[in-house]
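Q: How would the structure tokens look for this protein?
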Amino acid sequence: MVGPMQTMMVRSLAAILADAAVGIACSVALVSHAAAQSASATGASPSATPGEITYSQVYATSDGETHFKDVRVPLTSAVTAPPAQPIAQSTAQPATTIRHAAFPAGWGVIDRERNVFHNASERRFISVRRGVIWIKVSDGETRQFQPGDVIEVLDVAPSKGHITWVGGEPAIALFSNHP
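A: Here is the predicted structure in token form.
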């Protein structure tokens, strides 16, 4: 037999659970709204496949000055490994060699402090895998790159080059050279 005290406890517990359910529903709605707002600001839906990618490029002008620019690469849907589903991809680009590079913490800081620029030994894409890498070009702009970022470096000699340095932890990058 259930007494008045037990009935009151069950009702209180039911009210607490109802409040919790409402709170969870509101939280889910807020998170969903925030994701939709963010996607709306970038022009994409949260689950949409991108129609292009963007990466930073270091390039030299005819006067030897180096600059950054953002390069946009269109993606189209195609099957690359049947019977797998299609994926959004760019057109193929030539590559000659790849190599992994491990930079110790603080690498290049002395060059930054002394304003010592250097050229890339080859034209390449650099994919940051771990750590943080900064690059400064001769026009004075500096950009920070972290894991997942890709940079194309085209400032081979005789350009004025760039300065590269690594933060307080080691960094690992993948160099993909191209013609």
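DSSP finds two helices and eleven strands in the chain.

The longest strand covers residues 52-60.

Upvote if useful.
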